[in-house]
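2024-03-11 09:14:02 INFO receiving multi-entity request
2024-03-11 09:14:02 INFO entity count = two
2024-03-11 09:14:03 INFO echoing inputs for audit
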Amino acid sequence: MSKGSGSARIQIEGVEKSFSLDGGSMAALVDVNLEIQAGELLCLLGPSGCGKSTLLNIVAGFLPPTRGRVLVDGTPVTGPGPERGVVFQEYVLFPWLTVQENIEFGPRLMGVPAARRREVVARYLEMVGLSEHAAKFPLQLSGGMKQRVAIARALANNPSIVLMDEPFGALDAQTREVMQEELSRIQRLEHKTIVFVTHSIREAVYLADRVVVMTRSPGRIKEVFAIKLPANRDRFAAEFTHYESEITQVVKEEVAKAHP
Amino acid sequence: MQWGLRGTPLSPRRALALRLGVVLAFLGLWSIASGLVVVLKLFNPIFLAGPWVVLGKVLQLALNGQLWGHVLATLERVGIGFGTGAVLALSLGLPAGRWSALRNVLEPIVELLRPIPPLALLPLFIVWVGIGETSKIAFITYATFFPMFLTTVHAVQQVDPLLLRAAASLGARRRQLFFRVVLPAALPEILTGIRLGVALSFFVIVISEFIGAEEGLGYLINDGRNFFLVPQMLGAAIVLGLLGYTSNALVVRFERRWLRWERSTA
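2024-03-11 09:21:47 INFO inference complete, emitting structure
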């Protein structure tokens, strides 16, 4: 039965995942237990190949766990659903739709009337600063702009949960920081429950309420850090660097195991 | 076009002038060649009619009304034959691309029949369904089905699974995934297949009209052959070329309208 109090938005219970490989099977995740509260921004951090994206894909309902289960508001996940928005590293916009049509994709599926859809689109276009680009096609946008559209598309569908898989991983350093600031600003307005996968410690400390550090493959939870910093964070504050170095120590142990 | 990669592009006016010039030069060379045959008595001049004689023949057939009957007969066969082929290819190819069970049933059959050149089966079609309209139309349907079916299956299989994941997590169900993601994502390649099918239908109609037709542009060519009417043969071929060009341009127009997003770049 559920270990949690029942108040957690997402409960990950004893999740294991193995993939079949050359006749054998390879464990990607081992005994992952985690509770994510409503309104929390949780970062999954770990070396590449540690299974953090696999875990996110299980929560999204794209992959079934080999063992264990994921509950969202007490209901087991059996597939993808509109209450769990997803933002991918590769943006994954619909190239045949304009920016505006991409953002209203979800509301349109739900049968939201056109007038209401226009309001929603205008609001999120404004939020991500792309109001002038509504009529453009994705091929006409830069990487940063595409990821803004992808975030707006996920939010416009009004999910209670947003799952983000290294969303800023393909962006250059400057754009990346701007996007982090934007996400943190949006989160202060929207109070979503966010699971954010990253391999950047700085990014995790900047964004997260809690940082979950995973071990190298097969992935399990190594340590959980609660980041007690103000909502509007300063990357150069002493406390910020303190968290950064503390988490770096723990991550280094894992990387060292891979290269003894 | 980008600087230095493909050379300096010509201005549109110059490009058009160049294209027209090449066409005129071709007509000029043709005129000279047919003229030399007459002047130098190389061979019987009826074998190589000059372009103006051919054009005159086409005009004559157009003005006395004979041409239109042949054009309509050919277009009707192509229209019905290709249309049926496209409907079959799409209604089998779209689900076959999506569901591997259906694909595993259809693919062996297609792979078995596809290597046989369709023309090799034309006499068989005539034996089976007779020499009339049905065999010609069925033959076009048969010949055009394969490329359109295969490109459609491939197009659907190539749809990026991440697009499906994105749509599913926005709440799309089976039907919506198909109509709002699979279909638009596969459309560019499907249209390429349709263009192949259109070209192929003009290719095969001519030959099936050689055999036992009483009208149609293929009949006109074959009739010309029986009576050494070279201008009629060349004229009918040119009209076929124009029809093929026009139908291809029509598909390109649809492509431009529906695939506007593909040509938009930063």
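2024-03-11 09:21:48 INFO post-check: Chain A has a mean pLDDT of 91.
2024-03-11 09:21:48 INFO post-check: The interface with chain B takes residues 60-62, 79-82, 84-86, 88, 90, 92, 94-97, 105-106, 109-110, 136-142, 153-154, 157, 163 of chain A (CB under 8 Å).
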